[in-house]
C-alpha cells in the first residue's frame, strides 16, 4: 500500500528536517495543508488565530501552537501583509500575561523572520517607533538563534545607513523617515543578547560606520520630537527616557563590547570620547579618537572602513562628509593605506579647503599633510598647490603651518619647469607670512622662500630677483629674532639671496657674521630703495618682540641719515614714527627712540664723505651714556 501511495516530497521534507524551535511531536499529516495555502489565506489564518487565541473557549494552547505551525513550517511559504501580522503580535503581547501564549507568539514571530526577514524588520520598526519594552523583547526574539539573526542584522543595517528626516515640510504618518532612529534603539536591544555576537562580528565594519553616521544624524532631534511623531502616527508607546544621540552612542558602546572590543570602549571612555561624540562642536574629534582606538586595537577591521569612507567622499555625500573625513584623515596615518588617492577624493579635498566649517578645513588640511609625507601619494597633490597658495593669505596659523608643510613636500616632486612657475607665484604669497604671529609659520615660510629661490629658472629668474630684493630687509630684521630657529632660517635665506643676486659684499658680511653692517650695506648699494625700506621697517616698531623693535629703531636712524638730502619732510615722517615708540614698554627701546629723534632733529652740518654706520653708532652711544642705562651691545 505504501508503495502504491508514495509520500509527497513536501510532506517527507516536513517530517525529516529537524527544527529545534518547534515541538517535535507535531506529526499529524493534516499539517501539510499549510503548504497549499495562498499567501493571503495564510496571513488571514495567522491574524484570525492571533486575535482569537485569548478567547475563553480556547483552553488548549498546544492546539494554538500547532495551528501556527501549520501555516509557517514550510520554508517555501510566502507571506502577505507581514507588517500587519507583526503589529498584531505586538498588540497581543502587550495585552496578555500568560507565558504559554507569549511563547507561541514569539515562536510565530521567529518563524516569520526565517521566511521573510526584510518584511518582519520593517514591520517591527513601524509597529513601535519608540521601541517600547514589548518591541524590545520582540527584537531579542528575532536573534535568539543564528539562522535569522544575520539576516535581521543585515536588514537593520539597511535602515541604519539611511538618514532620518523627521523635520520635513510635510509628511504622512508612518513615513519611513524616523525609522533610522528606531533602528538604533532596536540595535541596542539586539546587542544585549550573546547570540548576536557571531552575526555582529561578520558585519562589524559596516555596523560601525553606520552607527557612527547615525550619531551625527541623531544630534538634530530630541526625545520630544520622537514622542510627537509617534503620537501623530497613532502610537502611544512608552518612550525610554534616552535622547536619540545618547541612544546612538550607547549602541556604539554595545557594538564594540559585543564584537569583543570592550577594552576599546573603556579606553574611549577614559579619554572623554563618548561625550565628544554627543556634541556637534566636538563630534569630529570624538570620531578621530574612536577611529584611532579602532586602528590600534582592531586594525583588520579598518580596511573596509577606509575603502567605504573614500567612496563616501568620492560621491560627495554631504550628510556624511564630516564623519567620513574624520575617519579618512585618521586612517591615513596607518601605513597599510599607501594606494594613490582617487581624483574624485582630491576634488573633494580641494573643494573643502574653503569650507565654512573650521572643523572640516582642519581635517582636510591634516589629511593633505599626511598624503604629502608619502612620495607615492604626494605626487597626486600637485594640482592642489594653486588652491593651497590662494588660501595662505588670511588663514589661521594652524592652516598656514600645514599648508606650508604640504607645499614644501610636494614642490620637491614637481618637474622643474612647472616648479619654476609655481615658485615664482609662491614667492609673492610667502612674503606676508614672514611676519606671522606664529613662529612656526615664520620659520616655514622663510625656509620655503629659500627653496623657491633655488627652483626658479630661465627667464623667470629676473622677476624672482625683484621679489628677493623686496624681501631683504624683512629677512635682515628677522635675523635678529629671539626665536633661534627663525633667526637661523632668516640668515640662511639672506645668504641664498646674496648668491642669487651675486652680491659679494652681502655674502661676505653674512659668512663672517657681520650682520650689524648689513643695514648700511643695503642703503649704500641702492639709495633708490631707501623709501621702500622705510615703508617696510615701520610695522616692526609695533612688533611684540623687543629685539625687533630695537632693530627697526636703529634702521630708521640709518634711513633718516641717508634720506636727509631729500628734505625736512622725510625726516619729520621718520621722527613721527619713532615718536610712537617713546611710550614703549621696554626702557631700552624707548630710550633708543628718543636719542635717535634727538640726533635726527639736531642741526646738521654737511656730513663728511666718510660718514658711516660706525659714525652713527658712535653718536648714539655718546647720547645714550647721558642717560646712564645698563650697557648693551648694538644690534646693527
From TrEMBL:
<dbReference type="Pfam" id="PF21047">
    <property type="entry name" value="HEAT_Maestro"/>
</dbReference>
<feature type="domain" description="Maestro-like HEAT-repeats">
    <location>
        <begin position="24"/>
        <end position="153"/>
    </location>
</feature>
<dbReference type="InterPro" id="IPR055406">
    <property type="entry name" value="HEAT_Maestro"/>
</dbReference>
<dbReference type="InterPro" id="IPR011989">
    <property type="entry name" value="ARM-like"/>
</dbReference>
<dbReference type="Pfam" id="PF23227">
    <property type="entry name" value="HEAT_MROH2B_C"/>
</dbReference>
<dbReference type="InterPro" id="IPR048465">
    <property type="entry name" value="Maestro-like_HEAT"/>
</dbReference>
<dbReference type="InterPro" id="IPR016024">
    <property type="entry name" value="ARM-type_fold"/>
</dbReference>
<dbReference type="InterPro" id="IPR045206">
    <property type="entry name" value="Maestro_heat-like_prot"/>
</dbReference>
<feature type="domain" description="Maestro/Maestro-like HEAT-repeats">
    <location>
        <begin position="346"/>
        <end position="600"/>
    </location>
</feature>
<keyword id="KW-0677">Repeat</keyword>
<protein>
    <submittedName>
        <fullName>Maestro heat-like repeat-containing protein family member 7</fullName>
    </submittedName>
</protein>
Amino acid at each position: 500500500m505504501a508503495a502504491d501511495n508514495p509520500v509527497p516530497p513536501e510532506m517527507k521534507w516536513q517530517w525529516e528536517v529537524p527544527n529545534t524551535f518547534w515541538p517535535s511531536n507535531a506529526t499529524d499529516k493534516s499539517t501539510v495543508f499549510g503548504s497549499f495555502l495562498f499567501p493571503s489565506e495564510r496571513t488571514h489564518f495567522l491574524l484570525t488565530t492571533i486575535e482569537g487565541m485569548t478567547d475563553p473557549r480556547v483552553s488548549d494552547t498546544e492546539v494554538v501552537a500547532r495551528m501556527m505551525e501549520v501555516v509557517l513550517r514550510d520554508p517555501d511559504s510566502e507571506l502577505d501583509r507581514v507588517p500587519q501580522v507583526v503589529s498584531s503580535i505586538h498588540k497581543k503581547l502587550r495585552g496578555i500575561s500568560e507565558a504559554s501564549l507569549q511563547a507561541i507568539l514569539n515562536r510565530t514571530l521567529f518563524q516569520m523572520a526565517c521566511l521573510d526577514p526584510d518584511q518582519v524588520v520593517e514591520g517591527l520598526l513601524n509597529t513601535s517607533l519608540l521601541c517600547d519594552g514589548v518591541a524590545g523583547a520582540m527584537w531579542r526574539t528575532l536573534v535568539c538563534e543564528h539562522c535569522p539573526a544575520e539576516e535581521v542584522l543585515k536588514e537593520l543595517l539597511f535602515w541604519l545607513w539611511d538618514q532620518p528626516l523627521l523635520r520635513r515640510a510635510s509628511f504622512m504618518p508612518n513615513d519611513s523617515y524616523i525609522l533610522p532612529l528606531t533602528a538604533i534603539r532596536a540595535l541596542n536591544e539586539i546587542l544585549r543578547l550573546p547570540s548576536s555576537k557571531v552575526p555582529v562580528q561578520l558585519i562589524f565594519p559596516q555596523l560601525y560606520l553606520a552607527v557612527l553616521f547615525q550619531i551625527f544624524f541623531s544630534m538634530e532631534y530630541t526625545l520630544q520630537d520622537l514622542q510627537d511623531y509617534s503620537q501623530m502616527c497613532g502610537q502611544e508607546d512608552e518612550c525610554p527616557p534616552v535622547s536619540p544621540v545618547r541612544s546612538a552612542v550607547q549602541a556604539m558602546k554595545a557594538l564594540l563590547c559585543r564584537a569583543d572590543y570592550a577594552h576599546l570602549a573603556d579606553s574611549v571612555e577614559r579619554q572623554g570620547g563618548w561625550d565628544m561624540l554627543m556634541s556637534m562642536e566636538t563630534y569630529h574629534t570624538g570620531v578621530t579618537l574612536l577611529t584611532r582606538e579602532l586602528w590600534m586595537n582592531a586594525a583588520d577591521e579598518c580596511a573596509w572602513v577606509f575603502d567605504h569612507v573614500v567612496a563616501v567622499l568620492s560621491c560627495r555625500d554631504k550628510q556624511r562628509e564630516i564623519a567620513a573625513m574624520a575617519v579618512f584623515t585618521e586612517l591615513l596615518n596607518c601605513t597599510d593605506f599607501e594606494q594613490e588617492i582617487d581624483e574624485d577624493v582630491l576634488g573633494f579635498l580641494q573643494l573643502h579647503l574653503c569650507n565654512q566649517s573650521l572643523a572640516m578645513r582642519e581635517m582636510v588640511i591634516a589629511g593633505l599633510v599626511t598624503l604629502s609625507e608619502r612620495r607615492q601619494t604626494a605626487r597626486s597633490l600637485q594640482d592642489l598647490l594653486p588652491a593651497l597658495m590662494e588660501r595662505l593669505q588670511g588663514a589661521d596659523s594652524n592652516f598656514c603651518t600645514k599648508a606650508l608643510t604640504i607645499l614644501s613636500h610636494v614642490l620637491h616632486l614637481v618637474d622643474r619647469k612647472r616648479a619654476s612657475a609655481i615658485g615664482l607665484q609662491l614667492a609673492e604669497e610667502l612674503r606676508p607670512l614672514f611676519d606671522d604671529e606664529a613662529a612656526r609659520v615664520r620659520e616655514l615660510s622663510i625656509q620655503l622662500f629659500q627653496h623657491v629661490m633655488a627652483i626658479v629658472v630661465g627667464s623667470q629668474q629676473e622677476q624672482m630677483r625683484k621679489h628677493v630684493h623686496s624681501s631683504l630687509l624683512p629677512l635682515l630684521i628677522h635675523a635678529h629674532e629671539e626665536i633661534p630657529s627663525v633667526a637661523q632660517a632668516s640668515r640662511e635665506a639672506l645668504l641664498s639671496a646674496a648668491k642669487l643676486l651675486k652680491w659679494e659684499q652681502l655674502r661676505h658680511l653674512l659668512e663672517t657674521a657681520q650682520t650689524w653692517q648689513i643695514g648700511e650695506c643695503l642703503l649704500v648699494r641702492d639709495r633708490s630703495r631707501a623709501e621702500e625700506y622705510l615703508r617696510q621697517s615701520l610695522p616692526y616698531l609695533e612688533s611684540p618682540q623687543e629685539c625687533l623693535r630695537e632693530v627697526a629703531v636703529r634702521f630708521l636712524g640709518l634711513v633718516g641719515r641717508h634720506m636727509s638730502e631729500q628734505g625736512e619732510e622725510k625726516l619729520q615722517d621718520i621722527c613721527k614714527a619713532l615718536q610712537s615708540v617713546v611710550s614703549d614698554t621696554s626702557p631700552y627701546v624707548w630710550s633708543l627712540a628718543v636719542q635717535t629723534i634727538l640726533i635726527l632733529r639736531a642741526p646738521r652740518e654737511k656730513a663728511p664723505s666718510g660718514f658711516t654706520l660706525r659714525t652713527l653708532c658712535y653718536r648714539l652711544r655718546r647720547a645714550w651714556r647721558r642717560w646712564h642705562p645698563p650697557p648693551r651691545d648694538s644690534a646693527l
